[in-house]
Every structure is written in structure tokens, then in C-alpha cells.
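Hi there, hope your week has been kind to you so far. Thanks so much in advance, here it is:
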Amino acid sequence: MSTYYKTTDMKNIDKTKPVLVTGATGYVAGWLVKKLLDEGMTVHAAVRNPNKKNKIAHLEELAAQSKGTIKYFKSDLLDEGSYTEAMKDCEVVFHTASPFTSKYKDPQKDLIDPAVKGTQNVLETASATPSVKRVVVTSSCAAIYTDAVDCAKAPGGILTEEVWNTTSSLNYQPYSYSKTLAEKKAWDLADSQKQWDLITINPSLVMGPPLNPKSNTSESFSLLKQLADGTSKMGAPKLGMGVVDVRDVAEAHYQAAFTPDAKGRYITSAHNTNFFELGKVLLPKYGAKYPLPKKPLPKWLVMIVGPMLNKALTKKFIRNNMDIEWKADNSKIQNELGITFRPLKETMEDSLQVLIDQKII
């Protein structure tokens, strides 16, 4: 698969024109919308139902406190052409909308179709909208790897933007499979035209405080809750993973859109870490009040009890991720987009404080 880069002078992007954000009520999208509004831009927020005031209340608040303007458009990933009005006159499109959940009944219907068909819907609309010059898609490190063991098999033992996920499937890690298929679809569509260029942001596990109070139900926050609500008081497994702050991911999207020489994929991951370390970094501030894990669990024990506690913790998953170092090279985004990442301690403490303030734990 080629990754065609457009040669049009991106310096001509006009910041007085509106920009589109799909899935604008989402976790990453909230911070991106805040950044755009703070920069004084006009944001076209594509949402499922603009009439549900409780869903957009936090965006209204952001707009009221900023120099920018926000307008809402009813759109749906699977409704062909539903982004046409929202995209009118936009030179930049941010496609952040995609399902992120481990709770699904039918992986094809609940994960694959919204991710792939949604991407096709948005990007085909971009090709039919003459004003569009650049599209920034929220992909994932899941489109690069399935399990931590894949890092060891990557060239030099480290994930880079050249690596693609080849080990997920509809039956194993279907979320990773959906992100892989969606990003491949995006590059295929980018290669088929010469009007706009494509940048993908590939975050690892995103943590950090949500602007939308409803975002605390996301997959990231269910993992955080497990660390602090007593589930992991006997210990936590060293499941290799990368972690990045939601505020840094939003900044990455912004810089990808407005850095003229930005191109291709960007691994957006701050820390090569593991699940136990996420809890450990919280101990100094919160260890006295909350039952955080103080020791790593042995692999043999997790192999026995893991599948009983969580259906996602299959023996294959544990074997491929536990006690295996996760490593990704984030030098491209630092060098080309000037991104600097927050310390893990700041990200985790700010995340947990949200759950405490909202009395979730």
C-alpha cells in the first residue's frame, strides 16, 4: 500500500474557514475542539443528535469561554452523505469518530462496519467537497500491533510507523482489526485522488481528564477504575502497553492539520509501560486512601483467574502481553510536529482525580 503525499502548498490553509470535527462529543475530540476554539476558529461539530443538549453542553461551555465559534450538524457514520453539509467550505477535516469498546455483541456490526464504512463515508465526502485540502484521521497504535509480543517481532524490536498490524482478526482482538481495516481504507481512498492529503494520528492507550463528563464511561476509564476500586488490590498484571495523555493527542491532531510538511502516520505514544506501572505511579499521592496494586501478579495466577474475571483476558491474550515489554518509537511526531509529552504521573493523577471528584470510586 502506498502512502501518497499531496504536493499542494499547505501553507495556503485558511484558518478563517471552518474546520470539521466528526464525533465531536468524544474523549479526544473534546480537547481538540477546545484547542480549535481557543485559536479563534469556527468548528463544525458533527454529532449524532444536535438536539440532545446534555450531549453538547460541555462544548457549548467551551465555546462560551473562547474566541471561536461552534456550529452543530447531524451526522452518522453509517448514513451515506450525512457529512456533506457539515463539510461545506471546510479546508481541514478531523475524523475522530470511531467505536472504542470491549463490550460488543457482533464485532462485524459493532466495530468493523462503523470504523470502515464510517471512514469511507467521511473521506468520500471530502473528495466531493472542493474546499477540503487536508484530512486528519484518528487511527490507533492498534493498527500497528495487536499484542505486546508483536513489538519483539518488529524490526529492531520496536514499533514504528512502517509497521502494520497483521495478527488481529474478526475473532481475535476485533477492535485492533477494525482500526487496521479503517486506516487501510483511508490510505486507499487518499491514494485514489489528488485533491487532499491524509495524516493519521496513531495513539496508544489514551488517558487523562475528559472534558465531557460522560467520557468517564470509556474503555480507558474502566481500566483506571479497576486499578483503584479494589479489583487490583492483590496486585496487577504487567501487561505491556503504551500510554499517552488525551491533551497531547489533541495537540497532535492540531499540529498535524496545520504543519505544512506533516505527512503519513504518527505514532502518538508518550510512555512504554505496563498496567501494573500505571497503578504504581499513583501510589505516592493516592496509596493511603485507595486500594491500588502494590505488587505485580505472577503470570501463572493470571492465566488461571484472568479468564474468569474478564472475558477479554483470554489465555492467548495473557500469553502475548503479560511480562512482555511494549516498545514504540515516538521520535517522528516529536521531530516533525514538535510534540512534547506530559509525564505519566501527571496523566494518571489527573485521570484518577476525575473519578474521585465524580464519586465513581
